[in-house]
UniProtKB/TrEMBL annotation:
InterPro entries: Acyl_Trfase/lysoPLipase (IPR016035). This is PNPLA domain-containing protein. It comes from the Bacteria.
Length: 288
């Protein structure tokens, strides 16, 4: 089932990304192939494999491998994410750049001044990240507005965004996931500082509308209202500039199934992935 000018956007969420991966698998099984896949944070690797038509092949074992790695001595989320990117991006080095492969977009945030870089790329970042979490509760995004710029990378050349190459893919993928309060290792792309997409973008579906895609599917990792960013100020609408935005979301908070951002159980990951497949299949059955 090929649809023209369709973009599928996947969200941030660390281990909660197993839900989005399940949805991608269901869409793939239904024969739905998007013209573009746009990802942020933990959904980058699953979305990349969806772009080459192999989300199902990656499957739940990807998440179980990450959980197992995190339980090893002297491991943390930064190291586990970087290792996962290295291991699971090998297959992408050729397939992702073929002419017939859908465009992959990865959302990040560029750090736009030296003072902010000194805070985001050093041990000061953890305290800054915690302050931004508190600021999100107050819906105060002033630091983000002054110091970060939402930045898209893509596998196809365009003047409107930066290029993903086989060389910089690991750095771009890691930068998209580098949330400061929990990730210790700083993120650099081509010598420039970056941080997690979530500070300005929980799911890059609005960016896909801006890129000109005529229909979009956004995957959420929580029930209820979907917001633009972690400050929960701007809601994701059902339509933007006449373009429909379809949202696939879980029925329950994923923590109830045993999965939180940086904590999960093997059974929880399996349950969340399966719930994503079920919700994806349900969406397909109702979609036009």
């Amino acid at each position: 089932m090929q649809r023209k000018s369709l973009a599928i956007a996947t969200p941030v969420g660390s281990f909660k990304g197993a839900f989005a991966h399940g949805v991608l698998t269901a869409l793939e099984e239904a024969g739905i192939v998007a013209d573009a896949y746009a990802a942020a944070s933990s959904s980058v690797i699953p979305a990349s494999w969806a772009a080459i038509g192999r989300a199902k092949d990656l499957g739940i074992n990807y998440w179980l491998a990450g959980l197992s790695a995190l339980e090893l001595p002297q491991q943390n989320m930064s190291k586990v994410v970087q290792r996962g990117i290295r291991v699971f991006s090998k297959q992408l080095r050729q397939d992702l750049y073929q002419p017939q492969t859908p465009t992959l977009f990865i959302a990040t945030n560029a750090v736009i001044n030296p003072t902010a870089a000194a805070h985001t790329q050093t041990p000061l970042a953890q305290d800054l990240g915690k302050r931004l979490l508190r600021a999100s509760v107050q819906k105060d995004r002033s630091w983000v507005d002054a110091n970060l710029r939402f930045t898209l990378f893509s596998t196809h050349h365009s003047d409107s965004h930066h290029r993903i190459t086989p060389t910089n893919y690991p750095a771009v993928a890691y930068a998209s996931s580098r949330i400061m309060h929990a990730w210790e290792i700083p993120a650099w792309i081509d010598g420039k500082p970056y941080v997690d997409a979530a500070y300005t973008c929980l799911c890059p579906v609005l960016a896909m509308v801006a890129e000109g895609y005529q229909e979009t599917i956004a995957i959420a990792n929580e029930p209820g209202t979907m917001y633009r960013d972690m400050f929960h100020i701007e809601q994701i609408p059902s339509h933007l500039h006449g373009i429909p935005i379809h949202v696939i979301r879980p029925d329950v908070h994923l923590k109830q199934l045993g999965v939180d951002f940086t904590k999960a159980t093997p059974d929880g990951l399996v349950a969340v992935y399966r719930h994503g497949r079920d919700k994806g299949a349900e969406f397909v059955s109702k979609w036009r």
